[in-house]
Amino acid sequence: MAKVKHEAAWYPLEPGETVLDGLLRQGVNVSHSCRAGACQSCMMRAVEGVVPPAAQVGLKDTLRVRNYFLACACRLPDGQALEVAGVGELRVPARIASLTPLSRDVLSVRLETEGALDYRAGQYVTLLRAEGLARSYSLASLPRERTLELHVRLIPGGAMSGWLATEAKPGDRVELQGPAGDCFYVPGQPEAPLLLAGTGTGLAPLYGIARDALEAGHTGPLHLFHGAREPGGLYLVDALRELAARHPNLHYRPCVLGGGGGEVEEGALEDLVRACLPKRPTGWRAFLCGNAEGVLSLRKKLFLAGFSLKDIHADAFLPSTPRVEPVSGAA
Amino acid sequence: MSSVYEQIGGEPAMAAAVELFYRKVLGDDRISHFFEDVDMERQAAKQKAFLTLVTGGPATYSGKDMRAGHKHLVQRGLNDMHFDAVAGHLKETLEELGVPAELVGKVMAVAEGARADVLNR
């Protein structure tokens, strides 16, 4: 039997059980969200014991050497013991600066941090509430801006989005952890064509990446595709049209599956994207964000169309997946 | 005598070959399902290890690994037809990169030698 020590108590793990599942099962409150090793909400630090390499996949080297690991990806060999601690030292306190609806179901959340949070436009952070509720969101803002901006999709019954939409108010205190992710613009080859494609709030990182590239003096064309089911799912339309008017190399292409018209194209995002590619997309770079299935499918299509894997930056959004727990009483 | 791996340009040549090769197998409906992977980088790394092996480069992979690594695919129906399709893409990849016919022949002979291990026979 493997076991984990957390705040002076030992917790046994079932065979094959992750540290996250084992602690949650025994009533320890550990922040978590995607449970797939991506959002990094459940990061912990090993104080004593050996961390399996699989639990450190995707972590920055600077975190790895200090024994940080992801509890949802940490399975201990039988008989092993691990002493863990939280990662409060990695969290930055922040206050909600503003809450502004961008569309029927997307909320712009601006946050002011106490202390620096060093990030690249397009990366993501984990937003934490005092009692530990954690969700990851991409950053739509630029590092030079005074506040961080997140685009939060309102999910029916969503714990964090519901709170932000109905109860949270400017001044409320939260914490941030991160940033993480490698979907961001790297200066160099300013003439390279850039393809930015996303659905839903996948626009958040793309909005940051596009502005970051333009401010860095990118001269090549930027093809920014934002897809939604219907026109009501598009947002920041005016801001992006205005940005495109100021930057002739920015081609903003909003598209919907149905109900399009005017300057909103109708069709599947994948088809519109492929139609804009040359026969040999040599030197193109792509940034794909949003719904995981769409991102993975488009990445494969771009690779088959001739993109080099190293030139495709993909950020597939994963839903938060809570443990199935018995419901006690009526909600 | 130096290996085919060295003669065609070593690691940089493999890096160029792997995307060409991976694109061919992933674009072939007969075999693409064996190569689907959420982590495309990991899958590409596997293809690179395979190309390095069949060209006689620094071995990171043994016949035993080859056997164990394909066992679950054989259970999913991997057979000679699929092996031939992959071998065909390997040949085309090398030819497109301008590898001389004689060296292509050597590589294909090595690949053929892996057939029994790949198909777990």
TrEMBL record, chain A:
Q: Which residues cross the membrane?
A: none
Drop me one GO molecular function for this one: iron-sulfur cluster binding
Entries under InterPro entries matching the protein: 2Fe-2S_ferredoxin-like_sf, 2Fe-2S_ferredoxin-type, Beta-grasp_dom_sf, Cbr1-like_FAD-bd_dom, FAD-bd_FR_type, Flavoprot_Pyr_Nucl_cyt_Rdtase, FNR_nucleotide-bd, MRET
Which residues does the UniProt record annotate as the domain FAD-binding FR-type? 89-186
Annotated Pfam families: FAD_binding_6, Fer2, NAD_binding_1
Question: The 2Fe-2S ferredoxin-type domain covers which part of the protein?
Answer: 1-90
User: Which branch of life, at top level?
Assistant: Bacteria
**Name of the protein:** Ferredoxin reductase
UniProtKB/TrEMBL annotation, chain B:
Please tell me the species this chain comes from.
Corallococcus sicarius
Q: Which domain of life is it from?
A: Bacteria
Q: Which CDD domains match?
A: TrHb1_N
Q: What Gene Ontology molecular function terms does this protein carry?
A: heme binding; metal ion binding; oxygen binding; oxygen carrier activity
InterPro entries for this protein = Globin-like_sf, Globin/Proto, Globin_bac-like_CS, Hemoglobin_trunc, Hemoglobin_trunc_I
Q: How is the cofactor bound?
A: Binds 1 heme group per subunit.
List the residue ranges forming a coiled coil, or say none.
none
Q: What is this protein called?
A: Group 1 truncated hemoglobin
Keywords for this protein:
Heme, Iron, Metal-binding, Oxygen transport, Transport
Requisite cofactors? heme
Q: What is the lineage of its organism?
A: Bacteria, Pseudomonadati, Myxococcota, Myxococcia, Myxococcales
A Pfam short name: Bac_globin
Q: For heme, which residues are the binding ones?
A: 70
Entry similarity comment: Belongs to the truncated hemoglobin family. Group I subfamily.
